[in-house]
Design goal:
Length: 238
Amino acid sequence: MPQTHLDKRAAVENILRLHRAMHVSDAQTRGELERVLAHFEDLIGSTVRRADAARLLDISHTALDRWVEKGDIPAVLTPEGRREIPLPQLIDLLEQLEGRRDEGKLALAAIIRERRREAEAISEQDFLPPKRGRPKTHRYPELRALAYHRLVARRLNASVVDEARRRLRRWRESGRIHPAWADEWERVLAMPMPEIARLLASSTQRARELRQTSPFAGALTEHERRRVLSAVEERLAG
């Protein structure tokens, strides 16, 4: 039976409930909840229609599109040619809104302003490696991945690592990652957090190869991601 828009919004709301439950659950219960969470994520898919996202965020479709155009809320092009909101980023915004209900309709605007300020305050030294001569244009993907992961490494905490482990399990189950790379990432994510951070920020060949299949996608906000991309482009153009 085809899924209705109402079903999709209800599924997102159930995902939020599951996230709240996982935050206060023991390891065994979290494992059980993750299987239910995976079911809802499979039901929804990787993106949400803009109309559904606007209703969930309690804003107008026009307001959502304005923030998308400004780069405050990410949107991706689906294979069907529609611009939709990535599910992880939508869940992240909704979770932040949960804790700021007392601000009412102004909460989302305040969150976006804070994200802008936080991204603007990031020093390039936090994520760009030292200059060594004029970099070559064809190194853009490599430098972009390194800069992104250097910033992730600075923000690394138990929640970020747990989310990477969960994403890796989903990728393995769905066949989105080669088993050899999944095994390698499992070994990495089992290391102490300082060692994970060092590897993410490393320029070694092993680190470069691992970053090509990184489960840390989505660990930064859209504003932080854009800050990294802009700085990398400026470095390569300079």
